[in-house]
Predict the structure.
Amino acid sequence: MTTKLFGEPVRRREDARLIVGKGRYLDDIGHNALAAAFVRSPHAHARITGIDVDGALDVEGLVAIYTYEDLTGPMAEPLPVLIPHPQLTAPRTGYPLANGEVNHVGEPIVMVVATDRYIAEDAAERILVSYEELPVIVGVDAARAAAHAVHEEIPDNVAARHHQQTGDVDPALAASPRTLSFTQYIERSACTPMEGKGVHAKWDADDRSLRVYSSTQASTSVRAAIAAKLGLSLEKVEVIAPDVGGGFGVKIVHPWPEELLVPLAAIALGQEVKWSEDRREHFTSSAHERQQRQEITVGYDDDGRITALDVHIWHDNGAYTPYGIIVPIVTATQLVGPYVIPVYRVVVESVYTNTVIVTPYRGAGRPQGCYAMERTMDRIADALDLDRAVVRERNLIQADQFPYDHHLTFQDGRPVIYDSGDYPGLLAKLRALVGWSEADALRNDAAARGKLLGIGMAMYVEGTGPGPYEGGHVQVLGSGKVLVATGLTSQGQGHETSFAQIVASELGVPIEDVEVTTGDTRRFPYAVGTFASRAAVMSGNAIALAARGVREKALRIAADVLEASPDDLEIDEGVVQVRGVPGSSIPLRTIAVLSNPLRYAFDEAAKQATQFAGPGDDSKPPVSPGDAPGLEHRDYYSPIRSTFASGAHAAIVEIDPATWEIDIVKYAVVHDCGNVVNPMIVEGQVHGGVAQGVAGALYERMAYDRDGQLQNASFMDFLMPYASEVPDIDIDHQSTPSPLNPLGIKGAGEAGVIPGTAAIASAIEDAVGRRIAAMPISPTELYDLVRNDDSELTEAYTRRSGTGAMA
Amino acid sequence: MKPAPFRYADPDTLDEALAVLSAEGEGAKVLAGGQSLLPLLSMRLAAPTTLVDINRVPGLDTVEVTGDGVTVGALVRHNQLLGGHRDAMAAARVQPLLARATANVAHPAIRNRGTTVGSIAHADPSGEMTAVLALTGGSVTVASPAGVQTVEWRDFFVGPLETSVHGAEVVTSAFFPALPPRSGTAFAEVARRKGDYAVCGAGVVVTLDQDRRVERIRASYLSVGLTPEVHDLTDAVVGKPVDSADWAAAGALARTLVDPDADIHASADYRRLLVAVLTERTLASAAAEAAARATVE
Ligand SMILES: Cc1cc2nc3c(=O)[nH]c(=O)nc-3n(C[C@H](O)[C@H](O)[C@H](O)COP(=O)(O)OP(=O)(O)OC[C@H]3O[C@@H](n4cnc5c(N)ncnc54)[C@H](O)[C@@H]3O)c2cc1C
């Protein structure tokens, strides 16, 4: 059958449009719109003592200036804490425009609206804000020391103390044959999508309705936020995510101040207003992620089996907590990975700093958790002189242990119960793919070329596709076109293709007939959003259910017309056919026409349908109770809990011992996301994730100085890797379908990024024989490490030197 | 990130360009490829009152090669000095350092617009071409309403992003003297990402005597110091046969001569390390080239 497309590497149908410049991104909308620009804080922590706009008033083309004073009602209140949590005891959020105090460089203070962006920036430059500077906190250690408070009323800088445990860890550690403890750090990076954020708003004064385009990952929620904050009725607000040039998490946060302020101005001025974030704004005014200090104590036996694990993390949440403690919870619960941890205690203290807020960035806390767990495995192996792969293998959850309950509570409030997986299978494939057993030969070969070679690996389990729900709508038109809508948004993942594949397969129609719309509240008003690798799991299944509903209705109508039992019917290439009876068939598009008893004969389709229309039954209404006109169905998928994808990565690095440049010469990925809708798209997701994993391990960091100034707020100095820095990637797949959802799929969006830092740290440590306890690492830092007499040597290095292999 | 208002002129002749520059005064800036100037404008780190775009001025886009050296016109793009380009091949016969260094400048799209002379006029101590001008002992030609004069590299580079050119002056060309006889060159750098400004880079010229012994070594570095410097490393290996000279000794000497700064990408010590390593590596390859040329000559 030609229409069974599920699982096929169908080429991405959106690419042609996007590649030739036919995409419609935020800045492509509203050419005549007024432009907004912002005066943002140059200080990391200060009281605002005055705002003098006089100098801007004579700028020709200036339309309006807004400060906090101009905000009223809900707009004058702090921005919402989107996801409250009982352990988030001291949440803080900023105001749409600063209310007397700023807590990070880049915080918006004044909005200027002018006839174009140039003029808006000219005017913004002439606005004088005076400040009284306050002491600045940068970094987890300073936050923890709490010599100063970011928020006066929170003297210890602690927003939340997240705590979970699965048993009594102290006695378990005391009873452990061996223990080891260590502290390590991981730095800040950021999503840095190609397209920054952006908002366009248009107010229809006659209809008293608002249309907003936002480069968002959650249009339905942006809609609700705008309605609430601006005092509009929900049905008068529509929000559309146009083509979005990448999100990676930062655009799931909402409402961003600009998402409220731009509509506010559009309503007040009665004109279209637009704001397109520029790159510097994105660096200093959106969100970052990943800085943590991790203190780890592990108990284990002589075989390397873990007996107890005690983890204390300090997590830098930046100046505010609009997104609650999702990232700390994800770190705490995903840390355990594919391993049996008999007794586990984790405390994550989420602390304030005078830096940009921290919200999910692809991986959302998992890379940090993976780094903690996997580096623990490396340490155990090192202490016991065991192969790092062997130690992992001994601790893995076995294939017959599913469903596996970790007795933890996930970010969605549901239990961390792994639905399915085969972790020993992953590890076996990884060892083969990367050539784990040949590492010593490679090492010697590299040494002969004057290079230090090292190999490292890391495994992960990723909770994907959390609820609460996502919906899908599928409708067959009389033209034969199949319209598909879901409320969640797309940022380049290929949803148009994979969702179309699902519908084409479920419904038995050619994929060319299927049109997919995402993120448009006019088409589907209920949605949660695109994050946590949930689009395929959540909307994919919802759309499949909707398509099944359509199929059922189509077969019911066809059975009537063809005088057959629905069980004897099949749909292929858009035609319903009585199985084994050639000629006894009816096109789906004709059923679509028949499904609506009101059929003015506008077109051929309606005329054709008449031949099938039987005489009406006078004893029944034209639309039976419980039925509805039209060949369409709306359905929702709401999972009992997340499904858990998994994978294993290995990296081989070569280091030049003269310049300490680090080169990844091999990168291997084994990946399990259950049933795969489109393997080409999944591989693309893995590639992009690995690129960001390499970025976080070797290149990117937010270089804040002590005053809270971000010193590298441009792509000149923030080293997002180019294609030239990303290694070739070898991928092998494994598939353990999820028993939790109809399609058996697990999410794939974030996986690629998760183990990068851990695997690369392990490989570098293996190459240089020095303990790597802070990531990312650059050549200049590696040079400092190797020539520091106090830096710790690994046991493996000492042993190897002893045998002369490394001499 | 939009520039502050500025006036724009695109004169058809050099005289006209100079006239506009003198009429506009100190606030005017020459616009060549725009690859350094426009980002500065967009970030509002610079706000010239007028941009004088010289791209329509005829006669500035040529590369002239003579036995004395290579003269690169003000509108010659980086790519014109690279790889398979006809001008590049001619230039390489006289001064191979040009193409070798240019290969490290930025990315293809930037090299299509950015100019060699613009790079030099921009005077970024991390720029490849500033170092090459210094290392080859080059000069620039500066036109002003008063006439044309030649400025030696030493007098031209005043500070980071600062040259002796002011007001109504346009650099019309840069001159890179030919590689001396029995000499070889090499260029290498360490950059965090391919095409980035170097964390550290080195260009060297090795000259041998008639007996294939080291006669003279000069080196210039990128991202080390406020202006390009040329260091004489001859002492470390003078008189040593080319095949057995201890290039590491020259590297060690270089390390003591430089005084680099730290930034977010590298500590000063790391830059010193790279100066030594890159010196040693480039010298080995430059010496091999010198030896080969000495044999042919
Ligand atoms: C992402 C990126 C990476 C880069 N990487 C590198 C790199 O690795 N190495 C490197 O060397 N460069 C790099 N560059 C800069 C690039 O080489 C520029 O082309 C060059 O520095 C300036 O040349 P331009 O013609 O574009 O000059 P413009 O940008 O037009 O001008 C630069 C300055 O020189 C002045 N100027 C230009 N021409 C003249 C003239 N004829 N007379 C008087 N004044 C003049 C201008 O007034 C201005 O002050 C990079 C640029 C970018 C954007």
Q: What stands out?
A: The first strand of chain B starts at residue 7 and ends at 9.
